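Problem 12. The chain below contains 342 residues. Write out its predicted structure in token notation.
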Amino acid sequence: MAPAPGVVDRRHPARGRARWLLVVLGVLALLVVTSVMVGSRQVGWLDAVAALGGSLEGFDQAAVAKRTPRTLLAVAAGAALGVSGAVMQGVTRNPLADPGILGVNTGASLAVVVGIAFFGLTSAASTAWVAIGGAGATAVAVYAIGSLGRGGATPLKLALAGAATSAALASLVSAVVLGRNDIADGARSWQIGGVGGGSYAALAQVGPFLAVGLVLCLLSARGLNSLALGDDLAAGLGERVALTRGLAALGAVTLCGATTAVTGPIAFVGLVVPHACRLLVGVDHRWLLPFSAVVGAGLLTAADVLGRVVARPAELAVGIVTAFVGAPVFIWVVRRQKVSAL
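Solution.
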């Protein structure tokens, strides 16, 4: 008898996961083509495919020239946020961990706003360095605060510490922006989170950061499986717990910080995507992380397309769409699957 939909075939788990991977890759490809097609001016699907292949003939070049880097940024940012969320949940053993809930996005945002306001940062590479530093400092602070008291860094304490830290840092962002009218409009629109300003230059500058972060996360996949058993048992199995947790956290912070530098803070992608992927492939991080990358890329691309469709001829920023879509989906996943721990 065939396995139920959404469940990995336990008799042939690798075959079932590979089948699901082909499915999600196919859906992502369709979403990428749709993203190039849809906008204030429609582009035929053959022309969209040709544009993605590098051809510049036979279609509305102005529309495609803007949509293609925007689509590639949505794919890269969605993949980064999906993997970052999955790793954060694995490192903290907290099913509610997410760059937004733990305040990492807000820390990166504050660092970028301060850099722009007081140090004149303009390039994507410089803002990426600053954002990664802000994200890393915030992650360390939240983990330290959440570790205080009896029981250490429990999921509830980490979530509360992240929420409090995020609120405090958001107030500081507002304080900096209100005092600088010259950057206020741009900073406010950037804080919503979006991929409309995507360009090949920005992708080229943040691409190395995303690549390094992704490699660190993927190399930590086997160690994250051990950490899921508990620190003591992982150490008994020969896992270097502190090193594994540190490398995985560094990869997640790098992905989150670099993405925030070019898109602004985008919520819920890192929260919803890992839970959805666990329903498809289980909890093995060697499969979970690649799936989170593909599904995260698809989710953010779909959110960007939806934002262009529902508000045509204007558009909704992708950060608004992910908030509307991600919150109810996450609530449904938690209630339906009764996810209480990893």
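Discussion. The chain has 14 helices and no strands. Students who got a different answer should revisit the alignment rule from Section 12.3.
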